[in-house]
Each structure stands twice: as C-alpha cells, then as structure tokens.
Amino acid sequence: MLNQLPILLKHQHLAHRFYMYMIVDNSINRRAIQWRPELHLQRNIDLYQTQHDLFATLLNQKNEQGLVQFWLDIALNNLPSKYNWEPENRIQKAWEHLSLYCEDSCYRAALQVWKENRCKCWEEYIFIARCLIYDPVKFREILAKYDPSISPLYVYIIEVLRKTIKDEGAVAKFSKWRLLCKKSNKELKEALIRYGIFEPEVSRFLFARKYFRQIYQFNKIQNPATRSGQRWIEPDSNDFQEAAQYYNAEKSLAIAPHQVAIAKDVTSEQLHRWMEICITALRNYPQSIIPRISLEVISTVSYEIEPSLGFYLEIENSIFEQKSLCQRTDAVLQQELLALNDNQKEILYLYYGLGWNQKQIAAKFAVTQGAIARRLQTIERRLINAVYSLKQPPQWVTGYVTTWLKYNYETPDNSDLIHAALVIAIQRLNAQSQNLLRLYYGQKLDTNAISKQLCLPLSIVNELLSQINYELECALFKELDLIIRKFLDIWLNKKYQYIKNQNFILQSQQLILA
Predict the structure, then answer these.
(1) pLDDT attached to residue 303
(2) pLDDT in tens, 36-47
(3) Burial 146-174 (b: 16+ CB within 10 A, else e)
(4) pTM above 0.85, yes or no
C-alpha cells in the first residue's frame, strides 16, 4: 500500500459537487483520485438549470449551501410542490445528488483519520465513509439530525464520517479481503465494468476469485488456528499459489467460461494482481454505493448487447436491416404457403392449427403415419430452403467464421445465437485443435512460433488451422439449420393458430346471422 494519500482535486464548478464521484485511477505510476460524472445526475442538473430560475441563480453563487438546502427540501420534505417538467423520481434523485455532494467529505474525513492512524490503508477509510453516505436508511437518519444554523452540511458530515471511520475501523469490519469474499459475482462484474475492465478479463477475474475465495476461506477463515480478532488476515503467497493451481487445473473443464478456457495459465503473482484490481474496483463501486452503472457507460464500450430478435438470421448490424430481413422472411414464407397444394395446406392446418398428431392425420388421409411424417418433412425442407435463399449461408459462412475468430474469439457475445454456436463448436473440437486456436487467436502467436512451440512442420500447422476453420463452418451450417427449424416451428404455430381463430370468428358470425 502506498503511504501517501493522493491529493483530491477541487471541483471546477459548483454544479460538479452534485453529480461527480471519486474513483481511484491506477493508470499512472502512482495512484490518483479523480472525479467522474454520473451522467443521469448531470442531465438532471442541466434540466433544473434550464427550467428552474431559482436553481439557476443558486448555481451561480460561490457558496453551495443554497443548493444543498434546495436538495434537502426535496429529499426530506418533498418541497416545494412538484412542477410538471420535474422527473417522477425527483426525491430519489435529490438523495443521489446529496450523496455525491458528500463524496468530498468522505475524502476529508478519511484524510483526518489517516493522519492520526496510518496503520490501515487510506482506501479502507474512504470505503467505510462511502458505505455510510450511500446507505439510504443511515444517510437519511444523519441528514434528519442536521441543523443548518449550526454548521454547513459538509462540516457536519465530515465529523459524522470521522467518528464512523474510527469506530468501524477499530473492529476491522471492512477488511478488503472480507469485501472481496462477500460480494456476489454480479456485484463484482458491475464494479469491474465501471472500473474499465471488460471481457475477456472480467470472466477470468471472476473465475480466479472463485478459487481464491475457496482457498482463502479454508486456509485463513475456517482455520482453527486463526483467532477471532484476526478473522480477515492477509493472505500469503501459498494462498495465491494454491488458487492459481486450481484455476489452471479447472480452466480446461466444461465448467470454465470460454474466455477462461482459451487463455494461458495464470501465475500466482498474476492472480494476486487480479484480486487487488477486484478490490480496488469494489471500493470504487461497492453495491452499497448507489452511483449506478450508467447506460452510457455500457453503450460506449458495447459491453452489454440487447438480445437478438428471435430466430431470424440477423447478421446485419443496423436495426433497419434487421427489420427488413424479418419482413422479407415473413413474405417469402407466406408465398411458399400459398404455393402448396390443398393436401399440404390441410396437413399443416391440422398439425399446427388444431394440434392433431401424425397418427390422427394419417387416419384422416388413409395413409401410414410414416407417409405423413415424410410429407411434413418435405414441406419443412421447402420452407427452410426459402429462408436460406434470403441470406445464402454458403456465401457468407466462410467469411463469417474467419472474421469471428479474428475479432470475437476472445470476446464472444453470449446473446448472439451464432456466437454461442461457434463457442459450443470450439468446445467440441479435439484438444489439439483447441490448443491451436488458443495459440493463434488467443495468444496471437504467428504460425512460425506455433510450429516451433509444438514441434510441428509449418505446413502441418497451416493445414490444421484450415481444417479447424472448415470444421467450424460445418458446425455453423448445422446450427443454422436447427435455428431455422426452431423458428419455423414457432412461425407455423403462430400462423395456423391465427387462422384457426379467424375461422372460429367467421363461424360464430355466420351462426349469429343464421
């Protein structure tokens, strides 16, 4: 740990105090604390500045106490009366503005305690303070006792936080290793994303934390030799070494995420660094700290992708093209249905509309059940070929697989059906093929380096890579066929259920008229 608490820069504008939060930046040689905007709160400030004359006036004053009181009135008393242009959740936003206003006080209080007692790291002191101001129940209790006639809010908050840090720090309630062990995968994932860690590292960090937590808890927490007062003691090198061994042994199993399975083995030192990054990310963004992960943050890095639109083969990137493909698919299938003969149409209606089984349909047509099964298969294949004609898989699958391996091998989109199919196909390859992909697309080694490492002729390496591409293309063709079959089953069910309902309505109307 550094023995010097970084200097926190002052806000350049009064409004910044109500929509910016602290984050520890490790991107330079020494740590620094920087301010980052919470975008939805920044927009809220802009809204009030343009719509509320008093608020705009308060923003231009040198003293922030007027703005503090403005948000306090809304948060504690829902005053003044709400304007139509104000957000429905204005009380919640007021609390969030006040919490972010107190971020600076967290730093000041932590600084005071740290100067008195440097036996603990300053990050821990800041973390204890932030947990309090983002606890909605405790924070409300604190502000309810605040008297603006005695002192400004920041002075009052610093004193409350200073006492809290001393009390909580004395019992080691907020050990960083406790924090790492107690947080869920969802919380850690959100913290890492906000901190600027994305795939494939996120999956690897989560997988590493799983084994470190097991080893640490067994060796340190559940160890009878550990005294209760030393419950969350520092892990030693053996803990990280053992966790790394488990990580490397388990990463080749089916339980390991794709991003983990394709990566190199991890060393104990690397795993230790990963856990420290996780701790820093959690301290910057624990679940109890409300600045939520903004949609803008997600969309900027394209980390979360909305699920694809059903089973249509949407390889286009634009929404317009996706909708166009859906419409064209529907039109082609409608045209194919119209071209069927009367017997084929009746079979589909009985099967999908009325829910008859093949045996019942066979009895009606006085043929065998196998004959009906073959007729259904003939119709299905005709419709599949019609869908294939829209995107012509033979023409794009080869290029798609090559591009995917180059750009998405390490970071597949699990919500994309084609990405998921390729991941499964890779998992079904033999060990040699998986290792080749790991070296070529994961570790970015050229074929000459791979040839030397595996003691294989260069021509064999190139031949194997081509063979792997071909195997993945074949697997993708099979998966596309299954996807289209599933889609057709859904489409035909909806189509003939609609026809059945329309027939029922028509018959009812005829009975009424009769």
Answers:
(1) 34
(2) 999 999 999 999
(3) beeeeeebbebbbebbbebbbebbeeeeb
(4) no
Contacts 24+ apart (CB under 8 A), 326-329: 328/390, 329/387, 329/390
Torsion (CA) 150, 154, 159, 163 in degrees, nearest 10: 140
**C-alpha 293, offset from chain centre:** 10
pLDDT per residue as tens digits for the range 300-335: 333 332 333 333 333 344 444 455 667 788 888 888
Q: How many helices (H) and strands (E) does the chain have?
A: 24, 2
**Residue 257 contacts by C-beta under 8 Å, 6 or more apart in sequence?**
203, 206, 207
Peptide bond into 200 cis (omega under 30): yes
In whole numbers, what is the pLDDT of the chain averaged over residues? 84
Question: Could you read off the pLDDT of 14-56 as tens digits, one per residue?
Answer: 999 999 999 876 655 567 788 999 999 999 999 999 999 999 9
Distance between CA atoms of 467 and 401, rounded to whole angstroms?
12
Taking the C-alpha atoms of residue 122 and residue 1, their distance in angstroms, rounded to an integer, is 9
Tokens for 222, please give them. Answer: 């559940």
Length of the chain: 514
Report which residue type is found at 113.
V
